[in-house]
Model the fold of this input.
Amino acid sequence: MQPMPTLCDLVIVGAGLAGSLVARRMAEAGMRVVVLEARHKVGGISARGGGLAILGTPEPYMELMERVGREEPAQIWLLTQRNLDLLRSQADELAVEVRRVGTFRPVWGDAAARALQKSVALLSADGFAASLEDATELGLAVGLQTQDDLLFDPLLLVEAALEHPRITVQTAAEVKTLEWHGEAWDIWTGDLFVRTKALVLAGGGHVVHLDAGLAAYLSTMPLQVIKGVTDAQGLSHPLILDAGRVLALTVGSHWQLSSWLSAAEADPWARLTQTAEQFCPEIRVVERYASWVARSADGLPVVGSLPKSPQLYTVGGLGPWGMSWAFVAVDHLVAMMLHDAELGLLDIGRFARD
Ligand SMILES: Cc1cc2nc3c(=O)[nH]c(=O)nc-3n(C[C@H](O)[C@H](O)[C@H](O)COP(=O)(O)OP(=O)(O)OC[C@H]3O[C@@H](n4cnc5c(N)ncnc54)[C@H](O)[C@@H]3O)c2cc1C
Done:
């Protein structure tokens, strides 16, 4: 491990996907960066995730339009398209394998099928490649098929991103207090002190504990995950079910299903197991666990500088579909920090304006 510098240019709190990508980009821009990670290893929730980055939002396009108006859905989808481009180029640069898998989003019932038809028409009017496909093989009528979605191993990407001569990573270093004293931030973990000119909070679901202001922008939501084994063939495409609340994919020899069902759901585990059995009746569940992600009120990431806190930035609220946002959110943050660029839809200031 390299010795801790006395005054560094930038400290990143959290070595998940977001923190590691910021560290890499800022190190490439010439900064000396220290990454402080609470756990004994890097990767965070990102390393446990499925590693599927999708085009657009899992929420049907029509529903998104009803919620945010006619123009914004296309802007949101464009951001995720840019995310896929950035993911591909970052992975190329770091020699991490990325697979183009596409995804399939089947729907239940006639009303949902009709709504999906309208969504597909609107998507193609807005220039996105998504098609309506037959889903009778899955016991359902139709589904939305996208082709450009990417699958990768987030842990490999995190580890490769942090491998840079200007990045120092300190694990088992949970940041407990931050204090601005006029020119720099003083940061304490249990047994470490670091002084830095600037600070990025990228602590995922835990970030709300570090800055009281962030709790006003983000809330944490639970995710349930089951892993199962079966002799049956794996899925040809990852499946996005229940308007994006359930993701099913095969990772190596395992089936993995994750869900972010609402707290009102009586027994999310039973529901998830039932869903698994619907697609793979002979599945044997071998692991299940719960996790947490941070989410903003409108479901978009929050990026930017924190009000009234000089040189304090965040990239968070990546939510249950964080792989579809991490690269573009980090790109926006870096452009803002280095070139004062606008943050557009992802700007944390959108909540203050409301
Ligand atoms: C099981 C599961 C499957 C998922 N699958 C997908 C998927 O297929 N596709 C998709 O798009 N999204 C998926 N997600 C969501 C996605 O993983 C998250 O949105 C994303 O990983 C969040 O990245 P992050 O860098 O913000 O947070 P994290 O990866 O959680 O990183 C935050 C890091 O900060 C550290 N930290 C926190 N507080 C402190 C502190 N005070 N001091 C120091 N360090 C601190 C944490 O230990 C952690 O390492 C999944 C999530 C889960 C749980």
About this structure: The two ends are 45 Å apart (CA to CA). The chain is about 30% helix and 30% strand. The first helix runs from residue 17 to 28. The mean pLDDT is 89.
